[in-house]
Amino acid sequence: MAGRRTNLALLWATTLALVSGLAAFTVGTLGGRWVIVAHGVVALVIVVLVPWKTMIVSRGMRRARAGRSLSVGLTVFTLASLATGLVLITGTVDFLGPFTTMQVHVAAGLGTVSLTLVHTLHRPVPHRRTDLNRRNLLRAGSLTVAGGAVWLATEGVIDLWGVRGGERRFTGSHEIIAPEDVPATQWINDRVQHLDVETHRVDVVGVNWSVAEISAAGDTVEATLDCTGGWFTTQTWNGTRLDRLLDAHSGRSIVVCSTTGYWRRFPLQEASELVLATHMGGEPLRDGNGGPVRLVAPGRRGYWWVKWVDRIEVDDQPPWWQPPLPTA
User: Domain check: are 153 and 85 in the same one?
Assistant: First the structure.
């Protein structure tokens, strides 16, 4: 494959890897599994293109020209992203130093995208009308088929190997069974809160509820918390359904807020499915797991499960009036 076409293919593959990777964080039900598969296939298309790109890099390294360090950095980030992705799906390594493998993978992926953008601005890849001809479309289709074949082969090897990755959830997350093993995680710059269970109150549309009052309702739901950090756990959660506390308030959205300032917005009609939980697996929630009160949002990824809840509001804004992924 010619150098220009290889670079163009890598540019589009990297863009699709970013889009599908971000979209994968939003998938909480089996119906969205195709997004996860697409992310894996696109990543393996990049692997398929490596031999051609290696020849381009080799030629470039023999010539002294500006931007060489940028190319080296891009190569390192790309290889790190691909390597950590493979480690993630096997489930063999959960942490790389103080960071989870998923955190390193995401960081490497964002680094790859950033350097790809800089590289493209520094050395633009010209688009031509002929890029959309039948031959090139067939090439793109062949690359996609090759990526899909490598994906299927990788899945087969993982199953035969018998590693933990063979049992991962459709989102790619690995299971944690025991409640006491569920890690303390938070979104981006949040910190674990240490709240007094006796004095903490949750303001639900102007009415304050104690932790004991929330717990007393005794509503129980078995739900899967699937963290974007790469793990999931299915537990029994105890507390109170939100529809019991909202007392038929009218509006379009429920806004659930944390003591940290973190918040997420939900459709009001989902109130009967959402639970303010005080217990997990029959035990009071630990601080790191969102205690004394956290939201349980079945069918949604972990960043929807607001921790350390202290306020719930109802308003007329549409439920989608928020960033798809929290920004802080």
Answer: yes
